[in-house]
Amino acid sequence: MTWSSRERVRARRFPWGRQMRARGLAWCIAITSTIAGSSFGAASPVLGQGASCQVPDAAVAAAPSPDPNGVEDADLTPAVGSTIIQVEGETADGAATPGAALPAATPVAPTPTPVPPPDPIALLTQELTAVSAALAACLSEGDSDVVTELAGERYLGQLFGGSVPLSAEDYIAIADELTPVPTRIVAVADIAQSADDRASALVTQVVGNQLVRAEWSFEQVARGERRAGENRWRLTGERQQPPPDQPGAASIDVAIGERSFILDETSVEGPDVILRGSNNAEEDHEMLVLRLEPGYTTADLLRATGADLPREVTFIGAATVRASAEGNLVLVDLEPAEYTIVCFFTDEQGTPHLAQGMEATFSVG
Fold this sequence. Notes:
Strand content: 25-35%
Strand order of the largest sheet: 7-13-12-9-10
CATH topology of the largest domain: Nuclear Transport Factor 2, Chain: A
Oligomer: single chain
Largest sheet: 5 strands, mixed
Number of domains: 2
């Protein structure tokens, strides 16, 4: 692999650059207002399950239910002991006297029940959730064309770990060379609308096997950019938030040195694992977790060429830990297997830290 100019090239050559963005998951983008105490394991519900990769429809307020107070098929039989007022020309048993004119009945209209206006936040929640789920579906399928319809240039740049906006054309050219990473929205919470065409939400998602959370910003596109009846919201950017812990997850403390990872545990029970990194070095490092096929080594990875990860390598999750700081990497739904932690950041000569021995392994039972 070519290791020069990591900041510019690295994110373009590896799909894991998507997950090292300023975010907290791409892509889930809960309807609940708190997620810190919730579990997001395999059995947990996923928002937008079955969402398709397309611009979703706009939310429509539900039609009011039939008035439960309306009169229908009323029983007109008088109650026992009630007084019956006999109308002239009518016999006591209710039969009309031949030739007598019957008075016209005056219908009594039921009092209408006021219909409350639709809840604007409920409609907004539906629309932002639909856009988030559709975006996750497109990222999972690798449909870069629709991704550029659902997300703006600033977010497209963030998808590859950059702070510079990326045009739709450039995004498509890069993304089409990479293997899609499965993405699913777990939660969309804290919906807020700051203007008629601006909104935000706290989105939790799983990218690969990494649980991430971020504040997503949305804007409405011009009416001419979407067909009639289509959802007009588009994701414009995200701001990373700390990932939520997983109750019951196994924990591994990772001491990060200049060119080393030291794990306090190398074998844990899954399926959820939290890597708690503590960077004691004077430079930034990353905890990039990969799953290598049996017989494939990190030496093979260093020799690999091409824009994509080798087919023997599966992206699991990644987190940057700043110098003299701490950071967590929350992984969910891990299968029993051995996993490898590496750092692909480079030194001043462009040599990746992995080539200098910065790797470690752990197994999940």
